[in-house]
Amino acid sequence: MAPRARRRRTLPSLLALCALLGSLQVTFQVAPPCASERHYEHVGRCCRKCEPGTYMSSKCTATSDSVCLPCGRDEYLDTWNEEEKCLLHKVCDTGKALVAVVPGNRTAPRRCACTAGYHWSEDCDCCRRNAECAPGFGARHPVQLNRDTVCEPCLAGYFSDTLSSTERCKPWTNCTSLGATEARAGTNKSDVVCSSSLQSPKRSDEPQVYLPSLVILLLFISVALVAAVISGVYYRKKGKALTANLWRWVNETCGRLSGNKGM
């Protein structure tokens, strides 16, 4: 009889324990989760964070929600947050060879990059001028923004005679296509020199053809000018003589007429 009595007494205790555990399980399931990136726990509550582009002016209370305000000009926040102030955008200083490649807004940061001809260096956290390729080397294309120049040796048939961070190797001149012959072979630092022997006779003959004609033309102009000067002087003197003779004849005639009237 004693064992049965003990079993009857422990049974209600087990039932009470199961009921307590069941109520605790229900309580844990009903409680709101605060593990979300958009919520935070404060004063025993699970409160909403501020969305990107805003900051938290004041946290939630037992009776009110969080107060969020928008970021100002040149400020941003790109995540759900509890921040008391927004972050400042980077300044892309043109004096330091920086330029804005992404302007940025209230929800995204501004991104800077080095201007063309410069690249970012981790050694100084600054923009450095790109390396220049020596003659005999050309820059690999396409030239990548914010990357240093990659110089490659010029292959056979190509050359580079300048110091540049952007120019690639150039092909040798094709003398045959120009109707000329190759006078000097090209190298990785110099172009081919083409012979102009086919065009030299024409150029040397041009002065022989035009020089006599030019001399004759100049002589003709000189003779014409001299003749015009002589003619002008001659006719000017002749005109004066004619005028003097005319006046002399008029005076003599008038004198004879006067003498006849006196008689």
From TrEMBL:
TNFR-Cys repeats lie at residues 33-68. The chain crosses the membrane at residues 209-235. GO terms for cellular component: external side of plasma membrane. It comes from the Eukaryota. It is a single-pass type I membrane protein. InterPro entries: RANK_CRD_2, TNFR/NGFR_Cys_rich_reg, TNFR_11A, TNFRSF11A, TNFRSF11A_N. Disulfide bonds join C47-C60, C50-C68. Keywords: Disulfide bond, Glycoprotein, Immunity, Membrane, Receptor, Repeat, Signal, Transmembrane, Transmembrane helix. Gene3D superfamilies: Tumor Necrosis Factor Receptor, subunit A, domain 2. It is found in: Membrane. GO terms for molecular function: cytokine binding; tumor necrosis factor receptor activity. Residues 33-68 form the TNFR-Cys domain. GO terms for biological process: CD40 signaling pathway; defense response; intracellular calcium ion homeostasis; lymph node development; mammary gland alveolus development; multinuclear osteoclast differentiation; ossification; positive regulation of bone resorption. Residues 1-29 form the signal peptide. Receptor for TNFSF5/CD40LG. Transduces TRAF6- and MAP3K8-mediated signals that activate ERK in macrophages and B cells, leading to induction of immunoglobulin secretion. Monomer and homodimer. Interacts with TRAF1, TRAF2, TRAF3, TRAF5 and TRAF6. Interacts with TRAF6 and MAP3K8; the interaction is required for ERK activation. This is Tumor necrosis factor receptor superfamily member 5.
